[in-house]
Design goal:
alpha+beta, Helix Hairpins, BirA Bifunctional Protein, domain 2, 2 domains, three-stranded mixed beta sheet, 13 helices, 15 strands
Length: about 425
Amino acid sequence: MLDTRHIEQAFAEVETALARRGAGVRPALEALAELASKRRTRLAALETQRAERNYASEAMATLDPKSDAFAVRRSNLRELGVAIKTLEAEVKATEEALAQLLDTVPNLPHATVPDGKSEADNVVVRTWGSATGRVAENMEVHAAQDHVTLAERLGLLDMAAAAKLSGARFVVLRREGARLLRALIHWMLETHLAAGYEEVWVPAILHEAALRVTGQLPKFEEDQFELVRMEGEGRRFLSPTAEVALTNLHAGDLLEATALPKRFVAYAPCFRREAGSYGRDTRGMIRNHQFDKVELVHLVAPDEGEAALEQLCAAAERVLQGLNLHYRVVSLCAGDLGFSARKTYDLEVWLPSAGTFREISSCSWCGDFQARRAQIRYRPEGSKKTAYVHTLNGSGVAVGRAFVAVLEQYQQSDGSVLIPEVLRSYMGGQTVLRA
């Protein structure tokens, strides 16, 4: 969430920054500023009333309980008690309204984020590899088969079984298909562990509060799989991404400066309804209700946030380069940023069959936006005051889409698919997939 003091003190600056996202933000910001001011006024009045009550209580202790002065003080104390309860209720209601409104306001774009309204305005930062690589050595790029055709012919993918078991937007992988997916997961984890990440295994079921911290709720509630509530329990959801659990690991914690940075990696199955994407990417493994990711999360000091984004992006690129996959890095424009993101790089992998790039990782710097919600603080060295950490997250990378890219970029003219060299040891030394 945004800092309400910053909204009050730099209203025009905040309004200008949020307007870059393309949304009509002024009404919400004005309401936030008004609520923040009301909260501050009522808190000041509450402190004054409490001080008066303390003074009256001390004064009563010096009076004769049978005296008129004592009776007057007692009456005053009762009146103060009623006034304090009223103010406490007003402060609580104001804080709840303020928190509810803050939940709907996105993060401020960083100054280095390109202007723009949609993905058409995103800026290509760099490209790695070539579209006229392995596929073109054996066939024309436009003749490349898509991953579904390849995988089904090779016996790797069983869409009929998936439909029978679960319906649309699920997959069943068989034999070398299942082994290849597992090889990708294992190799990605080992790659990030070698770079100094701490591996974490996280639950697939999460409390509502955890999803609010990272911004999945309330804005993207229609994309979440909510579980049936047990009696006496709050709302719980299937995890949409390991980012949620990893970011919340230190919710409510006060960290020492020496504990930062923290860099976590986790493999996890992810679950999303993809409610707004029906009709898009319905074939195969591009956009499913259940998918796999190796997720990366950083907790860093604020002055390290921008550099940490470059490090996070480099970690995801290390995976794609290790697999020798053609990809590009794109800086998202302000109008295409995610709700919690301050700045984002998307990594897009080349799919020969479509002749286009598709997202395989999204690396975002969230500033203190999520940390404020989660109350993750640290104590800077030599300071008595605390500050919020900055959080970053990114896929390292989406496993299913890496599977797709490997099949398409490594396909051969005879219909076989080469296995990337780094994965062969996880495939029992196998070098090629054949029907």
